[in-house]
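[Help] Beginner question about ligand-bound structures

Sorry if this is basic. My supervisor gave me a protein sequence and a SMILES string for flavin-adenine dinucleotide and asked me to "get the holo structure". I don't really know what that means in practice or what format the answer should be in. Inputs are pasted below exactly as I got them.
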Amino acid sequence: MQKAQKNKLWLSLFLILLAVISIPAIHLFKTKINEQQGIEHIPTGYRDDASHLNLTKVHKIVDVESTPEAIQQQLKTLLKYASEHHLKVSIAGAKHSMGGHTIYPDGIALNMLPYNHMSFDEKSNILTIGSGATWEAALRYLDRYGKSIAVMQAFSNFSIGGSISVNGHGWQKNSPPISSSVESFTLMNAQGEIVNCSRTEHPELFKLVIGGYGLFGIILDVKLKVVDNVALTFQSISVLPEDYVNAYQKIVSNNPDVQFAYGRLRISDKHFLQQATLNYFEKIDKKPLAFSQQQSKNAETKRIVFRGSVDSEYGKRLRWDLESSLNSVSPYATFSRNEILSEDAALIENKDSHSTDLLHEYFIPKQHLAQFIQDLKPVLKTKKVDLLNITIREVEHDHDAFMNYAREDVFGLVFLFNQKKTAQQEQDMQQLTQQLVDITLKNQGTFYLPYRLHVSRDKMRLAYPQTDAFFSLKKKYDPEQIFSNQFYLHYRES
Ligand SMILES: Cc1cc2nc3c(=O)[nH]c(=O)nc-3n(C[C@H](O)[C@H](O)[C@H](O)COP(=O)(O)OP(=O)(O)OC[C@H]3O[C@@H](n4cnc5c(N)ncnc54)[C@H](O)[C@@H]3O)c2cc1C
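Answer (accepted):
No worries, everyone starts somewhere. Holo just means with the ligand present. The predicted complex, written as structure tokens, is below.
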């Protein structure tokens, strides 16, 4: 080959390479600089939650005391004051619920976060923890003992009390929701008394408070069962959505070493819901690294890749391709269990003040998963709200919570949408929720309650036939209905 021809070839290859690298780089750079640093300002005397759509004036916000003696005295006095002045009390942890579950208009709003003590008893393997503590603090504390949290959500900046009150779940394999790891807790009831609740002491209240959205009292001290912190390796495979259940059974359920697993569905217009990945972490015989020895997680790069998918088919494809190729070049990377669980929701933070990210979750019996995904296609194809993500997580039958959403083994499909803060988009989201709930009911599933209040009272009762009994028991334990919030206002009998 002539030298000039060779040079031309090299130049062409160089230009192709440059284009391959620079197009995504420019896209991500544009994403970063277009972010309007719109950190929400909450005026004094107001409260909002993770939806950024619930700004509400409250009577006052009360930060609770941090020690058991002081908090008991403080809350007793406060409940008496609320009763005398006919005020409602709402309770908040990290406020990541999205439907005003932590807010009552002109009510007293409790901030539980300062109540965050913890101690670990090695003999019984039980962590005793204040309900305002976060999972993150608990993980860092337990790491010193070689222990870890048994069941928690996908992010670690939620409070223990909030997590029990929604009965959260994560992506721990073969695991019911958080309820299964709760040994007992103390509750300050509406009369200002401390009640110890467990499966044997006040069992009815135990069941009602777990997944009870703060309507039965204030959870104070929680006893949680914990597990060993172990080293795990990551693996990921591609599967067809229709084969997901079989692949999950073969690769995850049948392998005793797998501790975490989740699926992801492709949501770009190209191959819409036609591809899935199954991602899992398998235990290995190695000492887990302590928190202090772990490396940086490149959280900001991951966040920008995620944000680059908002309103962009290119960004959605790029994210799928980047995550898939990263999964294939870094199999067998090693992590500690605590490191995997320690993830801040800031990883996907939306900094645009004109839009907000909203979650939905639908729990579908395993045998109906493939049909549910089929039914999703026409609904999501015509949606007017931007879909950013769908993950699939296993939740085993829950035998504890009264408002049980896993009445058999199910897969939870978590949807994340980006919604513009306009009346039109709010209406679009409401319509979409109706359609998604309809196909969920058709597939004998339920929907998750901590999100937007876009489901009607009647439809809620189809998904949760125990609702009326739940609200009558609310009145039995709290006749003045002191504990209240917007979730209660929306769903209770009219
Ligand atoms: C980005 C994001 C990711 C999420 N991921 C998951 C997930 O992986 N799995 C999952 O299950 N959920 C998830 N959720 C949903 C859910 O909102 C959270 O699990 C839960 O709200 C977290 O706890 P919190 O401290 O934020 O609770 P909050 O929102 O503060 O409170 C939730 C409910 O608990 C009540 N409450 C709070 N503290 C107490 C207390 N001490 N005593 C009595 N009642 C109390 C409140 O009144 C309220 O009704 C997610 C939410 C967001 C925004």
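A couple of things worth pointing out: Residues 50, 90-97, 101-102, 112, 131, 153-155, 158-159, 161-163, 165-166, 168-170, 213-214, 218-219, 345, 359, 450, 485 surround flavin-adenine dinucleotide (CB under 6 Å). DSSP finds 14 helices and 19 strands in the chain. Feel free to follow up in the thread.
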